Amino acid sequence: NFRPRGVGASCCLFDAVMLSLCLLPSWCSYSIAQFPTTRSNTLQHLAPTPSYLRRSGVIVALTEQEERVSKAMELTPAEALAESARSRGLALQLDDGTRKSHSMAENTAFVTGFFKGISTRPAFAQLVASLYFVYEAMESAFDKATDPSVKALDYPELRRVPALEDDMAYYFGVDWQSTVRPTAATKEYCDRIRSIAVDEPPLLVAHMYTRYLGDLFGGQMMGGMARSSLKLDDALGTRFYEFDEIPRAKPFIEQWYARLNDLELDAGAKQRIVDEANLVFAFNIKLFDELQGGKRAVLRTMWGLAKGAVVSRVGKIFRRS
């Protein structure tokens, strides 16, 4: 029993923090106890009802922050979107065809990898650098492309390189272009982009789908988590996650999907785009695997985020009382 001695709000606060840390990354050596079936009335006020995940027959609670990351990555089943462009055509084919890869990224490498990235400033800077090289390769390919499918989906509002250049200068200094080099996984990813840009340009659509839509779905929340965890200067270091020219993400994404469905591609080309999208998920998982944040650093980050959330909630309760 890890609960400290004492009574009253302090113990309830400890319970809430431990509750929010109940789910640790799967590679962490700490044991996870079965989640209790009842909680005190006070605890019910402190923490929202958690989501549950069954691992090895044990039910555990998702931390508030991990749940928010998962929600940002979550794909609503297409059948629930009957009026959406996602319910038909290549949009539906991509969503369904990458669902397994998406789930793997959401529930394993992406969530734990993102916490790895925000565990230390050097780790997050490495993530930013990898993303810079990937987007530079992507957007250079888009600039040179003549393929109508690529041109149709290349919205200027989505471009990330200028924002990433600002972030690179923040983390690495004004001479970053002469000092920062891509990692092995990043280079492999970029080489693939440059290769298909020459050999089969329509496959670039898969890279647009996987990266840009993911950025739009969860970017604002993830940038906020990074700023909170790393104590970054206001409005600096997370420009990548800010889409200033897209005030409402959902209508924009719906428009993007509709245009995706209008592309004139045969069945074989569509399937190759789906296959490429699955490959892109694999490349992104490799990027996270390279991050240098260790187990203890990730645990400290999760603890800090959870504690901050609980303290904030307790403060609101006392202000209302």
Q: How would you spell out the order of helices and strands?
A: HHEEHHHHHHHHHHHH
Give the amount of beta strand, in percent: under 5%
Q: Structural class of the secondary elements?
A: mainly alpha
The percent of residues in helical segments reads 55-70%
What is the terminal-to-terminal distance?
31 Å
- Strand arrangement, major sheet: 1-2
Q: The biggest beta sheet, please?
A: 2 strands, antiparallel
List strands and helices in order, with pairings.
Blueprint: H1 9-20, H2 41-46, E1 52-55, E2 58-61, H3 64-73, H4 89-97, H5 99-117, H6 121-144, H7 148-153, H8 161-172, H9 176-179, H10 184-199, H11 204-230, H12 249-261, H13 267-289, H14 295-320
Antiparallel strand pairs: 1-2
Helix pairs in contact: 1-14, 3-5, 3-11, 4-13, 5-13, 5-14, 6-8, 6-10, 6-11, 10-13, 11-13
Write up this protein:
This protein is an all-alpha fold and 321 residues long. Helix 6 runs antiparallel to helix 8 and helix 11 runs parallel beside helix 13. The longest helix is centred in the C-terminal third of the chain and has 27 residues.
